[in-house]
């Protein structure tokens, strides 16, 4: 007879993977911006020859630039390996039938990365506005040239939601196995899991409606969304 564990159930160490991934993206985002900012300006220096003032900035020194570029590449490599580890973990846990873990990991990544994607949206908006003002609208004529870079940026950001989407995929697979999801509905949920914004609300629906889990976190996220929408509407009315 095995002795009972004291102090309640032990923390599943597998949760460290989704938690670390969410923290790596969200909590370290300011540090990533500090590293990437000079690199982006270096690229902009050649994309926009009119910004000659950049030639006098101190971070064009080759040694410092290489150090900053190395930091960005190491960060990206760590993020890639961590994302791959989460995807592999999702398949292993689904094979063991760990539906609760897959749901919790899905929610950790879907809810936990909301600040990251909001920062990305605001940053992209500010960068576009800065280029438009800095070039006095001339950047519009270069728009066809920038399309490949914009598509690459969108794909890179979309790829960052894949670990959470693969946990969602496992939830859908187990839902079919348990008889909670019909095949046509499962296909629809899979499409939503790999779609910006819709994936968050689909994860909320699957956890609350199908498995009756995560009700408090869903309520908190909905409340935050409502407050954010209200604040945005008030700010827009104030500017008008």
From TrEMBL:
Pfam families: DUF6652 (PF20357). The chain crosses the membrane at residues 21-43, 63-88, 108-133, 139-161, 181-198, 218-239. InterPro entries: DUF6652. Signal peptide: none annotated. Keywords: Membrane, Transmembrane, Transmembrane helix. This is Uncharacterized protein. It comes from Yanshouia hominis.
């Amino acid at each position: 007879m095995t002795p009972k564990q004291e102090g309640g159930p032990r923390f599943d160490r597998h949760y460290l993977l989704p938690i670390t991934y969410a923290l790596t993206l969200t909590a370290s985002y300011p540090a990533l911006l500090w590293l990437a900012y000079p690199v982006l300006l270096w690229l902009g220096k050649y994309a926009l020859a009119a910004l000659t003032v950049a030639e006098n900035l101190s971070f064009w020194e080759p040694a410092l630039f290489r150090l900053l570029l190395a930091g960005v590449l190491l960060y990206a490599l760590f993020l890639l390996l961590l994302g791959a580890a989460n995807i592999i973990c999702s398949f292993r846990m689904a094979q063991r039938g760990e539906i609760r873990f897959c749901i919790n990991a899905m929610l950790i990544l879907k809810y936990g990365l909301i600040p990251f994607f909001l920062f990305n949206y605001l940053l992209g908006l500010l960068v576009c506005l800065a280029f438009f003002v800095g070039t006095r609208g001339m950047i519009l004529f270069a728009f066809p040239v920038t399309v490949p870079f914009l598509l690459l940026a969108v794909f890179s950001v979309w790829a960052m939601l894949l670990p959470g989407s693969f946990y969602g995929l496992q939830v859908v697979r187990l839902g079919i196995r348990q008889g909670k999801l019909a095949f046509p509905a499962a296909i629809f949920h899979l499409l939503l899991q790999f779609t910006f914004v819709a994936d968050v609300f689909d994860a909320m629906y699957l956890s609350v409606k199908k498995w009756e889990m995560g009700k408090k976190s869903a309520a908190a996220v909905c409340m935050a969304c409502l407050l954010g929408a209200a604040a945005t509407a008030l700010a827009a009315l104030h500017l008008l």
